[in-house]
Amino acid sequence: MKPVYKFTAEIRVQLQSYKSSQQQQGYAVNYVRQNSNYVGTFLEWLEKQSLTLQQSGFTEVLDFADWLKQQGHSVNHINKHLSSLRSYFTHLQNEGCPAPVAIGPIRLKGGIRSMAVHGLLEKPELETLYENYTIKDERSHRNKVIIGLLVYQALTREELETLRPENLKLRDGKIQVPATGKLNGRILNLQPFQIIDLQEYVLLIRPKILAERMAERGGRKPDKYQPAKDIQRLFISMHGQEDIKSSLLHLNYTLRKTNPKYKHAIQIRQSVITEWLKEKDLRTVQYMAGHRYVSSTERYQTNNLEDLKEALNKYHPLR
Hints:
By secondary structure, the chain is mainly alpha-helical. The protein is about 60% helix and about 5% strand.
């Protein structure tokens, strides 16, 4: 079945230009279609991570390759995806379109080892992201709560969108994280200051956001709007979106001003899990991270970042 992707008009134009360019170079129809589908898979993955194409580069390509491996794809199949990406990035640069930094020839040799654990933030840097974020209005209060759940509970975007108010057990100082398609459900402890922020958010801030959201939807696609979903969600978009993808994208820009090393929410999760492993045993961290398999947690174990860099260079010779 042909994949169905939903992209912006700009990206659709770029993809069509890429296909036309390959056709003009005499490539077979099936080859052109396959390349386009591989690129589409990457762009869809970026969108799910709340990233733009311009924000992607070496690190994001490795994360994407790691994700493909977790989906059960062979190294040979992953190499085909990466070859298509290199071709697409080159096409964008030749056309003068905004494109990621050149990533050079990409080809994996053998297995993929611990690719997710790189570009990490240290614990003080993680806490600074939360502490330095100032609450000024309803939106920033909501964002502060979200940052806390990223930094102290290592939640994913999908989990943030799945949360409901009833998942908060504030009297017990805990949060019940529902299971998703990839991660197990779990009950995690909240920090004392998170409890205060969450209580104010649920009792005062969220009702205001919800009331404004309901009021502004009068003439905006009423046939497609489902208010019940907003009522159920813990976190609500401020501008009519049905999820918080755009909210996280804008939050990324703000957090980069606090720390230029910050890239995206996935980096926070990777960093937090790595920090947990310095203090807790493997099985405890597996539960806290929601990993179904302990091997997923083991990927974050690294005692020497220099050894890790050497492994990355060995298995991912991008230069």
